[in-house]
Amino acid sequence: MKRAHVSLEAAPTLLDGWMGHLGLAVKAAASPSGDEQAFPNRIELRGEDASLLGAQKGQPLDALQHLLQERVGEHEESKQPFLDAGSLRLARMKELKVMARFGAERARELGLYTFAPLSPRERRWVHMEISTLGGFNTESEGTGHFKALKIVRK
After folding, report:
1. What global pTM score does this model have?
2. pLDDT at 14 (0 to 100)
3. What is the DSSP letter of 54?
4. Which CATH architecture has domain 11-86?
5. Domain residue spans in the chain?
């Protein structure tokens, strides 16, 4: 049975309903990331059970985000909702931006720097940060969901 799509604006209300059905004390609210290009349409999940969604490296949060994106039905990233719990992902984005700059410095010195495997979203954050610096190429290596990312001095 195909369900009707919901708007991005209605996503927090839908999430609140899902959290109630799951018996979780969590409320959803739109919350800008401060970097809408890297982390658009952020919906923050708050409450005493929000930390449960960030467990296991955020796998429950990833699953919930996938379901929500299916309900929203948009394939263009700028129109998809992205979930965060306890600002876990926002902090990770900021951390990866700093790590990208460190990796660029190491690549400037050594010619190459390789990150441990990262998720697609994390790789995108690093690619975007490196693109602002100039003088480097980035490429993902490997197969599967998590891939290593290389920064190469031009």
Report:
1. 0.85
2. 96
3. T
4. 2-Layer Sandwich (3.30)
5. 11-86, 91-153
Whole-angstrom Cα distance, residue 48 to residue 127? Answer: 34
How far is Cα 111 from Cα 101, in angstroms, rounded to an integer? 14
pLDDT (0 to 100) of residue 1: 54
Q: Which fold has domain 91-153?
A: Ribosomal Protein S8; Chain: A, domain 1 (3.30.1370)
Please name which of 109, 118, 116, 67 lies closest in space to residue 89, comparing C-alpha atoms. Answer: 118
Low-confidence ranges of the chain (pLDDT < 70): 1-2
Taking phi over 0 as left and psi of -120 to 50 as alpha, with beta for the rest, 111 belongs to left
What is the spatial distance between Cα 16 and Cα 64, in angstroms, rounded to a whole number?
12
Give the Cα separation of 27 and 96 in Å (integer). Answer: 27
* C-alpha separations of 32 from 29, 62, 90, 109 in Å: 10, 19, 10, 36
CA 7 centroid distance within chain? 20
Give residue 97's pLDDT: 95
Res 2: pLDDT: 66
Separation of alpha carbons 8 and 74, rounded Å:
9
Count of alpha carbons within 13 angstroms of residue 86, beta-carbon side: 12
